[in-house]
Amino acid sequence: MSPKKKTAKTSIRLVKGMKDILPTEQHIWDFVRSRVESVARDYGFMRIDTPIVEFTQLFKKATGEETDIVSKEMYSFVDQSGDRLSLRPEGTPGVIRAYIEHGMLNQPQPVKMFYIGPQFRHDKPQAGRYRQFWQFGFEAVGDADPIVDAQIIAMNYNILRDLGLDIEVQINSIGDKHCRPKYFKALTQYYKNKKKDLCVDCTKRLLKNPLRLLDCKVKGCQELAEEAPQMVDYLCEDCNKHFTTVLEYLDEAEVKYNLNPKIVRGLDYYTRTTWEIVESNQDGKLQALGGGGRYDELVKLLGGRETPAIGFAMGMERIINKIKEKEVVLPEVWRPDVYLAQLGIEARRKSLKLFMDLRQGGLTVSEDFSKNGLKDQLELANKKNARYVLILGQKELVDGTILIRDMESGVQETVDHKKVVKEVHKRLASKMNDKSLKIKTTKKV
RNA sequence: GUGGCUAUGGUGUAGUGGUAACACAGCAGAUUGUGGUUCUGUUAUCGAGGGUUCAAUUCCCUCUAGUCACCCCA
In Å, what is the separation between the CA of A64 and the C1' of B18? Predict the structure, then answer.
């Protein structure tokens, strides 16, 4: 056994929880990205790219030191200059840091931004869950009006619906710093004499984070949770008004939603409106594709002025899995107008320049100049779904002509080499006008 | 982090205590100027390490990875 091979198999490989996005699946990612970008544009959100690396402190403060994400799952390290840094486990803290640092409070509020990028969590990998995973997220910073909540939820809903998914919004309000303590008290009170019926985890949760008792999966706990007091009944007047207004607006926007008192987000900074977008898979189980909420305390917590904000984040791998599962019809993949085939040493030499001319003439071109045979080249042209093949051989070179082959009909014509760009454009245009060919060609995943 | 299951070429799958079969894809050729046909050849020391055995890809153990459930989350 050669030691080389052994090395290749044991150490040069994908790190656990990481994933290559291969050329063959890029079209799905492009599809999602382009839809996200176009919806963002329609709703007036501008793209922001923040660094993957931030001070660890940022996430400790923003996401919460006690959360699993920060306490157990963060990729943290000390760099050469002694700074304590972390790979971002989520997008919001970086965006808010940028908002404060670049004085965006001087722009018209709310400042609406979105991001698309990788996030990192050292979690146990599972279906649709990686250690490096992609999220896209939207943040509207600087306005507390419930219409902002409704609009961003509607947008969230529309993005996923535009992607062809059958989804539903699960919504709740978790109050604010005024009313939540009262609710916690009531909740603790309710569970006080029921401790013996709770599972081991829940008895711990009772002390640490009573909200989490509500979404325990153990049957006995679930039954108790059904009867437990609900946050919505404990909302203070302001929070209650805010929430009911959001719901009214959502009705107005015809967004399908379900009230779900168990939507308690995992991050510490949320206040008031919280939601998740869920999709039911074959066995009727709901999987969250992402979630969001209002976070009116975060900007101040990170050292800015008191500034209300709201946002959401969606997991791209999960969305892409759903798209694959549902065989959503994607728009046509990139397709070359012409494929340049060459025969003979001289023709091959001339092809380089001709290729550039075709490109500059506004055509999408493809080639495999390393191939010699015309058969091979036609086969590849066919695989690449080229509309036309230009054939340049010794004969054409001498005559100053070139062959245009229509790959659908197989018809070939000889044209003047100098007029080739014009000739191709002419044929493409007439093809577009032909109604019988106007039917959109689409490709399933 | 805990537990169950799995691991065969690039991909999807057969199979056996005596070193592997098929399909697709890839490459080369039949055909050095014609594709979406055909034919031929070629592409794996059966995840890694150890043990039992005359002999292990097959049985056992460990590790690694994947997967599912829990936890958590996107």
Answer: 62
